Amino acid sequence: MNIYVGNLAFSATDHDLRQLFEPYGAIDDIRVIMDRDTGRSKGFGFVEMPDGTAARTAIAKLQGHEMDGRPLTVNEAKPREPRREPSRARW
């Protein structure tokens, strides 16, 4: 199950998320989303857990949990929507 983690501090790292989620079960992948231009976190990330039951438990326990003074938003990630082609000038 893919889990969205929002309202992260800009200093949060993949390692920080791993430490937060490991007590709830195995983790396949962790990604804190970084800004291409600044190299700084965008304030959200994703955690992939293979066991759905463990993932739901982690979501329930960590929703609203404070990390670096910020309450986290934790829920099941929605599927990524396909990107639209940029509109082209018609003249």
Number of strands: 6
Task: Please give the largest β-sheet.
Answer: 4 strands, antiparallel
Oligomerization state: single chain
| Spatial ordering of strands, largest sheet | 2-3-1-6
CATH-assigned homologous superfamily: RRM (RNA recognition motif) domain
The number of distinct structural domains comes to: 1
Number of separate helices = 2
* Element order: H for helix, E for strand: EHEEHEEE
Describe this structure in words.
A hairpin with a 6-residue loop joins strand 2 and strand 3. 20% of the residues are buried. The protein has one domain (2-76): Alpha-Beta Plaits (2-Layer Sandwich), CATH 3.30.70.330. The strands form 2 sheets. A 4-stranded antiparallel beta sheet has the order 2-3-1-6, with helices on one face. The chain is globular, with a radius of gyration of 15 Å. The chain has helices at 14-21, 52-62, and strands spanning 2-6, 29-34, 41-48, 66-67, 70-71, 73-76. Helix content is 21%, strand content 30%. With 91 residues, the protein is an alpha+beta fold. The longest helix is centred in the middle third of the chain and has 11 residues, at 52-62. The termini are far apart. It has 2 helices and 6 strands; from the N terminus they run E-H-E-E-H-E-E-E.
